[in-house]
Amino acid sequence: MGASAFGLEIRASNESVTPAGPQGIPLQRPFSGFDFGQLPDGSTYVRWDGVGEALISRSGQAITCFPFPHADWESFHVYLLGQALSFALVKGGFEPLHATAVVFEGQAVAFLGDCGFGKSTLAAAFIQAGHRLLTDDLLLLETTARGIVAFPGPARIKLFPEVALRFLGRAASGISLNPKAQKQIIPLNDSQMCVDATPLGAIYALASSNGDQAIRIAPLTEREAFIDLLGSTFNRQVVDANRLRRQFEFTHNLANLTTVRRLSYPRLLERLPLVLEAILSDLAEDNFTLAACKP
Description:
Rossmann fold; 6-stranded mixed sheet; 9-stranded mixed sheet; 25% helix; globular; single chain
């Protein structure tokens, strides 16, 4: 099933979407501020502290959401179109990646990495240089006749205030991600955002520099790429046998069809222009062009 054929309905509720209240569902907390649980009918309940909650249907084709009183809608929207959407996508047979992507010369360039690895900060440097963002944090890919296609996300990026001020000049215009977070949600305009599905050209797996001040880009073997891609799933909560089998197949195909390189660099804002220059130089090499069409 193609991404364009996956119908998803999002409905807003005026009251809690938990059928018997949170205390009636065994909840798991995989990380701070986030809870989820499976209901007997196959639907999934998710909740974010101080922000809101959502109920994802068994098929993944319907999400019913309820923002908590006094929660900012933009903040709720980020979680809804991130974690809640990832459950819907997985239920629908897709494998979203934890990645941020920009567009360079008509191709999507994706950056893999866990929280805090600098995906959004690197994308902000690309935006400052005149390139457009495709998606921030959740990346949906699909194999088509055109090769691997990357789909756009919402027109916003999540940045710390000092990063937003340095690269976008808009720290004051952001909204807090949640009541306890320092990161802000920065809206993007049409010149900063790509809204079209875009062929995937390159994937960079961000790695810790471990104090090394050099900027290093190195190709990964297919096995290494498989491991990095597998570890970059956006949703680690759904672990039934069918999902894990599909995830393995998807990751194997992606590692086989796409060139993946490891990128390490010092996490210093003043070095990012040099990091950007190194990536653009790497992309310009003949052997790294149109990776989506690699035989």
